[in-house]
Amino acid sequence: MQIIGYILTAIAFFAIGFLIQKWLRTSNIKKAEETAKKIVEDAKKGAAQHKSTAELELRAEWSKRRSDFEREIRARKEEAEKKEKYLDERATNLDRKADLIARKDAELSKKEVQLLEAEKQVTVKNERLDSIIIEENRKLEKIAGMTQDEAKRQLRQNLETEAREEARGFIREEMERARSEAERQAKKIVSTAIERCATEHVLESTICTVSLPSDEMKGRIIGREGRNIRAFETLTGVDLVIDDTPESAYISSLDPMRREVAKKSLERLIIDGRIHPTRIEEIVEQAKKEFPGIVQKVGEDVVAELKVSGLHPELVKLLGQLKFRTSYGQNVLAHSKEVANLAFLMATELGLPKDTAKRAGLLHDIGKTVSQEYEGTHQKIGAEFARRYGESDIVVNAIEAHHKDIEPTSAIAVLVEAADSISGARPGARREAFEAYIERIEKLESIVSEFDGVDKAYAIQAGREIRVIVEPEKVPDEGISQLAVDISHKIEEEMKYPGEIRVAVIRERRAVSTAK
User: Fold this and answer.
1) What is the DSSP letter of 505?
2) Bigger pLDDT: 400 vs 146
3) Do the Cβ atoms of 470 and 483 come closer than 8 Å?
4) Residues with Cβ < 8 Å from 422, sequence gap 6 or more?
């Protein structure tokens, strides 16, 4: 029963809930209908307002377009009026031109008639002239005794002969004028080059001076009983002159390389202060070892001074050796630099490759550094070295042709030859006797060096004495006297020289040991 009561209570609650829900739904529907009505009314009001605004905007747009259309119509009308006016004026001008052309056509027709009449008159006159010319030619043929064709040929021959003679004279005058102008220009170019390359020429000396800190140093250089000075002269092959000149000593030698080595050695001995035969030998050997570096430095300085680029290191070394070579008393390196500058200046004036001319001028005597070691002229030897170390054909030909051994193949070669002649022909630049004197000294040393056992040979005292250093292993003490006699006889047979030549043979045996 209790369960049934519960069920009935639940049914009652369900029924009450259903009724309440239905009531709420009916109330919501009424509210929704009222809201919808309000929304519809608001929409109608908004649509009416929007319609009014759209009508106003449409009227304004229509008014603006109408104004633009009217403005465009007016502009086109004005343009059409201008074109119509322009066409009227053009038509008027065309009418005027048509009238003018008509008048000119009438005048031309009139002139044409006049020209036809004049042409008829000219034709008649020409016919009369032709008949007169024929008659006159007949009379001339009778007088001259030749036909017209023969007279023409004769006249042609006379005119050709006269023209040929006039042409020859004209060509001769032009050639003479060109030759004179060329000579004048050549003289101007050469003189300009010489003026711009004015260098002082001093004949190469055989003596160089070494400054001494005091006269007391002279005694130390000479040494006890002259042993220091004898050792120095023997090792360097030069004459060391110490006289009354204050604080000075002189080195005399015909070989510039020996002079340079001796000068460097003596200067170092003076600074070092230890002057005795052993130290002298060490210093001299050191100077000889450093000499190739000095030669290389001289070549590099010359290349930098003249701004010659791309030169092979071996050619630079050979250039440095030119400083220690002379030709007819003229320093070969100074001569080569001058030839390079002269060739450069003349090439500049003529518009030729100036750097190539300078290069060829600098290298033209490069063969003189090794001319004693190879067969052939220094031109040929220098050309071979230049070709071997990558120089151009123009430079090689300029080197080989500068004494006219072969024909020059370029204007550069001709300029180098001219520059070489200018440099050597300056007053005081060269001295023939000096070169012959050097050749005699070199020949004297070469004759002595041919004997077996001779280690070194030095010509000193201006060639009046030859000092011969022999190898002690090959020449005994008892044999040096006979060797001196043999050398003297050889010199007498193969050389011509003024006065006498003293032969001094030196044999030295040295024993060295080390104490520990």
Assistant:
1) E
2) 400
3) yes
4) 190, 193, 194, 342
